[in-house]
Amino acid sequence: MKTVQGLLKEGTGLLKEVGLKNPARDTELLLGYSLELNKLSLYTSPNKPVSAEKTALFYSYISRRAVNEPLSYIIGTKEFMDCTFLVNRNVLIPRPETEHLVEEAIALSKGFLAPVALDLGTGSGCIAVCFKKAVPQAQLTAVDVSEAALMTARKNARANNISGINFRRSDLFSALEENEDFDLIVSNPPYITTEEYAALLPETKLFEPELALQGGSDGLEFYRKILFEAPARLRQGGFLLFEVGYRQAGQVSDMIESTGKLKTQKVVRDLAYIERVVIASRI
Ligand SMILES: C[S@@+](CC[C@H](N)C(=O)[O-])C[C@H]1O[C@@H](n2cnc3c(N)ncnc32)[C@H](O)[C@@H]1O
For the range 220-223, what are the long-range contacts, defined as Cβ-Cβ under 8 Å and sequence gap of 24 or more? Predict the structure, then answer.
C-alpha cells in the first residue's frame, strides 16, 4: 500500500517532470484534498497508509493538474473575499484583484438607502454574491450571456445563503426593461486583447472560458459597448465601476470622458500597484 510520504514524492516528481511551477505545493493540495487532510496532517503522518481507492483518486487529480488544469477546477471551489465559490469550466475563476472592485462598490453603496445595482457579466456570481452579502438591502440584478455561468452563479448564491439576487440571461443590457436604471453598475468584463489571448498560459487558455476573457483586438470592446448604453442606465448620482486590465485605466477613463455624460471619479490600484478599478459618475 502507498503511504502519504510516498504519494507526495511521486506526485511532486510527476508535476515537476511536466514543468509545473509549484509541483510540491500542488501535490500537497491535491493529496490533502483526496484524503481530506490539511497540510500539517500530511507531514505529521508520513507513513500513514493510503487506500487503493484514495490513491486512484489522487492519481486522477495529478493527471489533470499535469495537463495544466487549474487547481480550482480540480477542487471545484475558489475562495473570494470571505466566501467560497463553486467553479467549473463555464466560469472564470474569481481573481483576488476583483475584490477591490467589490470593496469599492460596497463603499459607494453607503451613499444610498437601498441601492439599485447591476452586475454585468456575473460569471461565478462572485461580485454579486459578496456585494449582496455586504449590502443586503440592495436591489441587485446580475446578468450574463452564458446560461451555464448563470446556473453556477445561482448555485453560489444558494451555497453562500444569499437570496434576492435577480439573475438574468442578457447580452449586456439587452434583456433589461427599457426604463430599468441603476444607482450602481459594476462590471468586470472580458478585457484581454486578441494578441494577449493567444499568448496566455495554457492553464488559462485551455481551461477558462474564452467568452470570459477576450475583449476584442484592443481588449476594450466591452467597455465601448457598456459605455454606449451606461449613461442612459445610470441614475443621477449613480456610479459605474469597471475592473480594467493592465495599462487600460487611462484609455477607459478617456472613453468615459468622451461619452460627455460620465466623469471619471477615481482610479484604484490593486496590491501589485496596477490601476485596476475605474469609477465613473453621472455628470
Ligand atoms: C471577466 S468575466 C467576469 C466574471 C465574474 N464577474 C468575475 O469577476 O470573476 C466576464 C463575464 O462576462 C460574461 N460575458 C461575456 N460576454 C457577455 C455579454 N455580451 N453579455 C453579458 N455577459 C457577458 C462572461 O460569460 C463572463 O462570465
Answer: 220/191, 220/248, 220/251, 220/252, 220/255, 222/121, 222/172, 222/187, 222/189, 222/190, 222/191, 223/189, 223/191, 223/248, 223/252, 223/255
Residue 133 Cα to ligand 1 midpoint, Å, equals 20
| Domain boundary, last residue among 67, 99, 124 | 67
Number of domains present in the structure of the chain: 2
- CATH number, domain of 86, equals 3.40.50.150
| pTM value > 0.70 | yes
Taking 70 as the pLDDT cut, the residues of the chain under it are none
Domain extent for 20? 2-67
What integer pLDDT is reported at residue 283 of this predicted model?
86
Query: Ligand 1 pocket check: which of 89, 90, 92, 143 to mutate, most ligand atoms within 8 Å of Cβ?
Result: 92
Instruction: State which of 146, 214, 221 you would mutate to test the pocket of ligand 1, scoring each by most atoms of that ligand within 8 A of its C-beta.
Output: 146
